[in-house]
Amino acid sequence: MTKPRKALVASALAAVTVFASACSSDNTPGADAIQVTGSATVEPITSYMANRYDFDVNVEAIGSTDGFEKFCNGDADINDASVAIPGDYQKQCGDNDVEFIELPIGLDAITIVKHRDNDFAADLTTQQLHDIWSKDSPVSKWSDIDPSWPDEEIKLYGRPEGSGTLDVFKDLVLDGDEIRDDYEATDDVEELSAWVAEDPNALSFMGIGNYLSTEDEHQKFIDNVNVDGVAPSSEEAKSGNYPLSRPLFIYVNKASTEREDVDKFVTTYLEHSEAVMPRVFFYQLPEEDYGNAQKRYADRTTGPDDRWQS
What percent of the chain has pLDDT over 90? Predict the structure, then answer.
C-alpha cells in the first residue's frame, strides 16, 4: 500500500525504545517501571520523553479508550489519550477510586492519507469522507464520488475499536452515523502507513505526527489530503480552520504521583512538551495551555476540565 505526502513532508522520527518492567496491584500501579498505556497516536511523544530524559517507562499502544479501560481499573500510572476522557470512563475511574489528573500536552490534526500516485483525490470534503466511510453509504468506488475519477474500489484502512483517533474521526466525520466495518484496522501506525504505501487505491486516517514520522521507505509513497480545502498544517489546526484538529492528553493516576519517579516524569513531561512537539512532528498548543497544565498538575487538580469535554 502507499502513503500520501503532500505539502507536509518531514524526515522520519527515529525509533524510540523504552525499557519495561512490570506490574500493578491496587490503585497505585507500578513496580520498577512507570506503566503507561493508551493512545498509539500519543505513544511516540511519551516514548520520546522517556528516552530523551532517561526515565524507566513501559509504554504500550493499545488505543485511548482501551487504555482508559485499563487505567480506570488502576492498572496503569498514565494513560496516553488522543480524546478527552469519555463519561463512561470517568464513572469507571470513580467506581474504582482512581482519581485522575487531565493534562493537555499537544495538538493534532487527524490527517487523511492516500497513495502518492492518486492525483485526483487531493482535496475531499467532510461530506465526501462521510459518504466514503459511513456504513449505509452506496459509495464503494472513486467514481461514486466523482464520475471523472477511476472506476476502481476504494480500499480503506484505519484504526480499530478502542482507538481515540477512531472515536474522534467518527464524531467529526460521521456525525452519529455508523462507520462501515469492512476496512482493515491496526493500532500499529507504521503498519497502517505501510498498507497505504502499498495500495494505489488506499485511503486512511492517522495523527499528523504519525504521518510525518513515517519511515522513509513508506513516506515516499504516501500523501495527505486537504479537507474542505484546508491543509492539516500547524497554522490551520491552531486557528481551528482545519476541521479534524484535536488536543492530545496524558491522564495521570493521582495516587501514582506519590512515587518520586512518576512525579519527576510528569513534571519533566510538562516542562518540555511545548518544545518537544515539533521534534515528534505534532503541533503545539497555545502557550498559556502549557502553563495551565503545569499549574493543574502542581495543584493535583483532578477530574475533567469542562473545556475539553464535547
Answer: 86
